Amino acid sequence: MRTFVAVEINNDEVLESIKKIQSDLDLRAKPVALENIHFTLLFLGEISEQISFKVQEALSSIKFVEFDVEFQGIGAFPKVSQPRVIWVGTDEKGGKQLCNLASQIESALSPLGFQSDKPFRSHVTIFRIKNKVRNISDKLAKFSSEKFGIQRVSEIKFKQSVLTPEGPNYSDLQVIKAK
């Protein structure tokens, strides 16, 4: 099974703001479905059911307190001149707390052999771009300081992802609530 650990975005104000920006940007790219928008704290990839149980056991040791993340700004990976992903970022304080949470998760799962292949950057993906598009820095610059709302982070989820031609289908394997 293909798995990851995430914080889901479930604040309607934030999701409506993202939906509006997806429409306003008018890109030749596939927008991420609103129900699939999340922070990926650690991508685990393909694992067995047996490893899934060990991951759940390790994740149950995670302790964190609720915190708020403000969504602001927009950007692209790997770079605006050759985008593959368009994202919405976060405020510094909330981003740092997400980074700490991602680090705590990685520490809990590293004995099982899981480590991130790159440093955590607090963002949610709002578009995936398969075909080469022209430089969109002018379009993104208009929204560089845009604010999209605030999300309370009160739980993390261990999720399964099933890839389909229509896009991924996510389901919860475990929910860890803030203490």
Summarize the structure.
By secondary structure, the chain is α+β, with helices and mostly antiparallel strands. It contains four helices and nine strands, in the order βαββαββαβαβββ.
Walk me through the structure.
By secondary structure, the protein is α+β, with helices and mostly antiparallel strands. The chain has a single domain (2-177), classed as Cyclic phosphodiesterase (Cyclic Phosphodiesterase, Chain: A). Helix content is 27%, strand content 41%. The chain has four helices and nine strands, in the order E-H-E-E-H-E-E-H-E-H-E-E-E. The protein has helices at residues 12-25, 49-59, 92-109, 137-141; strands at residues 2-8, 30-31, 38-46, 67-79, 82-90, 123-128, 147-153, 155-164, 167-177. Strands 2-6-5-4-7 form a five-stranded antiparallel sheet. Strand 4 and strand 5 form a beta hairpin. It is globular and about 45 Å long. The mean pLDDT is 94.
Key traits:
27% helix; Cyclic Phosphodiesterase, Chain: A; alpha+beta; 5-stranded antiparallel β-sheet; globular; 179 residues; 4-stranded antiparallel β-sheet
